[in-house]
UniProtKB/TrEMBL annotation:
<keyword id="KW-0560">Oxidoreductase</keyword>
<keyword id="KW-0503">Monooxygenase</keyword>
<feature type="domain" description="ABM">
    <location>
        <begin position="3"/>
        <end position="94"/>
    </location>
</feature>
<dbReference type="Pfam" id="PF03992">
    <property type="entry name" value="ABM"/>
</dbReference>
<dbReference type="InterPro" id="IPR011008">
    <property type="entry name" value="Dimeric_a/b-barrel"/>
</dbReference>
<dbReference type="InterPro" id="IPR007138">
    <property type="entry name" value="ABM_dom"/>
</dbReference>
<dbReference type="GO" id="GO:0004497">
    <property type="term" value="F:monooxygenase activity"/>
</dbReference>
<protein>
    <submittedName>
        <fullName>Antibiotic biosynthesis monooxygenase</fullName>
    </submittedName>
</protein>
Length: 110
């Protein structure tokens, strides 16, 4: 069962965006995306909060997520979080096998 994590990184004076930039420019993001079981690893910037970055991080299953957490990349990620003095909040999602109700389709423009 796939797992999606929304990780909110918050700092000061643009540090969260600098963190995301360094993660990308240093190759860490590409390395995470290449890990077995990674489905998505992408940063987004909330319009209403310039000091927060959202990471949407999806994995095929708990085993893939556990392997990622045990990988050498985690020490690099942790070091960058410390460098930029970031605080985090996490939300965990699992798929709803039933899917969205048909009535929701009326609100989606394709």
């Amino acid at each position: 069962m796939a797992i999606t994590m929304n990780l909110y990184y918050t700092g000061q004076n643009g540090s969260a965006r600098k963190f995301a930039a360094e993660m990308t420019e240093s190759g860490v993001v590409q390395a995470v995306r290449a890990e077995k079981g990674n489905l998505r690893y992408a940063y987004f910037f909330p319009m209403e909060d310039a000091e927060t970055v959202l990471l949407i991080d999806s994995w095929e299953n708990q085993q893939a997520l556990d392997a990622h957490h045990a990988s050498p990349l985690m020490s690099k990620i942790a070091a960058l979080r410390e460098k930029y003095d970031l605080h985090m909040r996490a939300e965990r999602y699992i798929p709803d096998d039933a899917g969205a109700p048909a009535a929701d389709a009326a609100f989606l423009r394709k």
